[in-house]
């Protein structure tokens, strides 16, 4: 069983919250504060209960202490978001005597933002001494960083056994509830829409989901490897040659399981995978030799929309085409719109690029859930146990 922060008594306790404040920076300016705002409900909850809050995160990929990747601008921004009521103190490290003293002297309602965990190589090495030093700062451990839950690092896994009480935060709670429903007990019809760059990234997800779904709609570059496996010529489209056999086997197992594996029947193609490419409508499965498929075609979109409309559960992972280029983004947009329009269904978006697409289309709030973890959500959907989640089991 995993407790949530709602199940614990926090008053007067030092509560260590592992958050994901890995935000994009331009110099000291935060260009997108979504991750900070998403962590607010958990932080506010702890503060409201009278906890002394200690926040820890990584930022970027520093090699040793690097002032450019300091969490200082994040702490300042957080302080603005929380308002004058709560003081946000900044530590110049995440372990050591100075930090330990600050943590000890923290008062209820105050926040202590630790410095970037990855300034210490021991974080990613999951070093026991480092993990114990982090654990010594607090009475309660809360993990709300789903994006790193698939990593066994000191702050996500190693420190947890050394803390008395542990729980997930509100963000992870929602992830487990929503993604958990998909792998166990999804309402039917269950339609999965998969796309993106590579079949190889998603093989295990497909294998794990095939026995659970009623239909699997495949778009994006990975569709061409499947078409190739059916003997369809796909021109210059991205194909993973070494995965064609595997795609063939997945098509066979879908048939055996009675699952519809639906591939594009038409395409929007171009000469190159960039904004210079002029979009060409290809009205059949076969793509001419000089062209590559860069989006699903018009009949395919209609078909995918119809499947999504009739579903009670829709999982979508991976764009339907080169959505970063407007001329090839329409298939991706229409999948997102069809999901947003189905108010009867549990609609879940996983994957970093898919989440970015949904945000860009302004449709995120219309989904039941947009996962905050790219790699972590994929590993969860593969049926794997995530170290950061397993560590929370009581
Ligand atoms: P996610 O992050 O949602 O899991 P992926 O990382 O698997 O998605 O794939 C996203 C990338 O795949 C995007 O950069 C997109 O442009 C690219 N992509 C999708 N379809 C095609 C295509 N037909 N040709 C080239 N690139 C594509
Ligand atoms: Mg991606």
Task: From the structure above, extract its key features.
394 residues; alpha/beta; single chain; 6-stranded parallel β-sheet; binds adenosine-5'-diphosphate; Rossmann fold; elongated; binds magnesium ion; 15 helices; 17 strands
Helix and strand arrangement:
Blueprint: E1 14-18, E2 25-26, E3 29-30, H1 34-48, E4 52-56, H2 72-82, E5 88-90, H3 97-105, E6 111-113, H4 121-125, H5 128-135, E7 140-143, H6 154-158, E8 165-168, H7 170-183, E9 190-194, H8 199-209, E10 215-218, H9 222-229, H10 244-257, E11 260-262, E12 267-270, E13 280-282, E14 292-296, H11 298-309, E15 313-317, H12 330-341, E16 346-350, H13 352-360, E17 369-370, H14 374-381, H15 387-390
Parallel strand pairs: 1-4, 1-7, 4-6, 5-6, 7-8, 9-10, 9-15, 10-11, 15-16, 16-17
Antiparallel strand pairs: 2-3, 12-13, 12-14
Helix pairs in contact: 1-2, 9-10, 11-12
The structure holds adenosine-5'-diphosphate (ADP) and magnesium ion.
Adenosine-5'-diphosphate binds at residues 195-197, 201, 220-221, 238, 273, 293-294, 317-319, 321-324, 351-354, 374.
Structural class: alpha/beta
According to CATH, the fold-level topology of the largest domain is: Rossmann fold
Helix content: 25-40%
CATH homology-level superfamily of the largest domain:
Phosphoglycerate kinase, N-terminal domain
Bound molecules: adenosine-5'-diphosphate, magnesium ion
Number of DSSP strand runs: 17
Question: Low-confidence stretches at least 5 residues in length (pLDDT < 50)?
Answer: none
Mean pLDDT across all amino acids: 97
Strand content: 15-25%
What is the CATH class of the largest domain?
Alpha Beta
